[in-house]
Amino acid sequence: MEAMDDDVAIRALALAMRPNAPVRHAVVDADWPLLAAAYRTRGSLRVVDDLASEPTDVEFTRTETEFRKALRECAPERRHHLLLDRVRALASGVMGLAESEVLDPSAGFFQLGMDSLMSVTLGRNLSETLGEPLTPAVVFDYPTVETLTDYLSTILPEFADAADTVADAYDDFTEDELLQQLSERLA
User: Fold this and answer.
1) Which of 14, 74, 122, 171 lies 20 to 30 A from 83 at CA?
2) pLDDT tens digits for 49-82?
3) Do 149 and 87 contact (CB within 8 A), yes or no?
4) What is the DSSP secondary structure assignment for residue 53, as one 8-state letter?
5) Other beta carbons less than 10 A from residue 67's beta carbon
6) Mean local confidence (pLDDT), 158-164
7) Which domain holds residue 25?
8) Hey, what's the torsion of the CAs at 117, 123, 129, 130, to 10 degrees?
């Protein structure tokens, strides 16, 4: 929201107070594209979309990214850690933290000082890095490095492929062999 000129505000007040004025109305001077982006981070609000001059139905094109290539080439058991490190690095960068500062993966983004504009930027950076469309509210829905990483691992096919590979490796074992494998791993 921006400060409104006194003359404009007084004229608008007169219009708002007239007998045939709508029951609900608002008079504001705002940076509409910025306001629309802030509201979209909290969920879909169609009235703001209609007021904003930027298009809202833009087709997202999935692209091959260097990070996705690295995920595929990485050993399946290391993929989650690689994704966690990338989410942590992007969040740290958006928040302006030095590379030497390690972001606690279980701490909430907003408790660490992230604001709504930073969350929109983080979501956009993740979308570009992953080559996947993400909602602007993804950072609000998954507000820590850990929860965001866990969510992303459910939508990226590289993780589904890894889960299938692990499941397939145990398909040929008998129940006794599976118990033996479990005992060895727990020992």
Assistant:
1) 171
2) 444 444 444 444 567 899 999 999 999 999 999 9
3) yes
4) S
5) 16
6) 66
7) 6-51
8) -170
